[in-house]
Design goal:
Number of strands: 6
Order of helices and strands: HHEEEHHEEHEHHHH
Number of helices: 9
Helix content: 25-40%
Strand content: 5-15%
Shape: globular
Distance between the termini: 7 Å
Radius of gyration: 18 Å
Length: about 250
């Protein structure tokens, strides 16, 4: 059974590197924690969480735990505090993106896309930034909702750069964008027809779409490695969804 409080519990740990299992923990800073997604929707899928209590002199130091529930919760707070927290998450997310890119080359022999952003309507409380590769071929990606909520440029997955842009435009703009996330248009995106985000080909069922996405990924691999497949004899660090140290974030759900 999914523990909806799992992310918040993890974010409030004083020593996450000691208290979380290695299958859940990737890294932390004084203000942020990075964990493996328990049900990864791609070969690489991580969550970047704001920690609490906040560092006394760090980003968003004045924010209470209740303010860190979601973008919607944060929209009630002073813009400067919100911007500091989001920018901090994105900076840590960028470090994770670089780790993922290095691992891709080590284990697969080539590099492909990684997206970083928030869900318009998150399924679990406590703000979290997704860092996820764009292959979308993991076994846990099973439903139309799963696909459409991570589908690039579809609208449900909010690119981190766009959210930073809302914040840079001022409190009123940010709050209006966040208010719009509750509307029926956004909710309807979860139920959109299944269409490959790369080539636009429609699929009638999830198995058909997943087979197509896997074909697309194999074409990327062939192009990226010159048809030679993955890196011969490569040994990565196990941060992929199928990596040796990756068993899902067992402590987070």
């Amino acid at each position: 059974m999914l523990d909806l409080s799992a992310l918040r519990k993890a974010a409030t740990l004083a020593h996450p590197d000691l208290d979380l299992p290695s299958s859940a923990y990737l890294l932390h800073t004084p203000s942020a924690l990075v964990v493996f997604d328990k049900f990864p929707k791609a070969k690489y899928h991580f969550l970047v969480l704001p920690r609490h209590p906040r560092p006394a002199s760090g980003p968003g130091a004045a924010l209470p735990l209740s303010a860190l529930g979601s973008l919607r919760d944060m929209a009630r707070e002073a813009l400067e505090n919100v911007r500091e927290v989001v920018e901090d998450l994105v900076e840590v997310g960028k470090e994770v993106v670089e780790m993922v890119r290095e691992e891709m080359v080590k284990t697969e022999g080539f590099e492909w896309g990684v997206q970083m952003g928030f869900h318009a309507q998150p399924s679990m409380p406590h703000l979290h930034l997704h860092v996820i590769s764009t292959d979308l071929v993991a076994p846990a990606l099973k439903t139309k909702r799963h696909y459409n909520t991570f589908r690039p440029a579809h609208g449900f997955f909010l690119d981190a750069a766009d959210v930073i842009g809302w914040l840079a435009s001022g409190a009123d703009v940010f709050r209006q964008h966040v208010a719009d996330l509750d509307g029926p248009r956004v909710a309807a995106l979860e139920k959109s027809d299944l269409v490959c985000w790369r080539c636009g080909q429609a699929a009638r069922t999830m198995p058909a779409l997943k087979a197509h996405l896997l074909d697309e990924f194999e074409r990327l691999r062939a192009a990226g490695t010159g048809g030679a497949g993955g890196a011969s004899g490569a040994s990565g660090t196990g941060i992929a969804s199928g990596g040796s140290s990756m068993g899902g974030a067992s402590a987070l759900g």
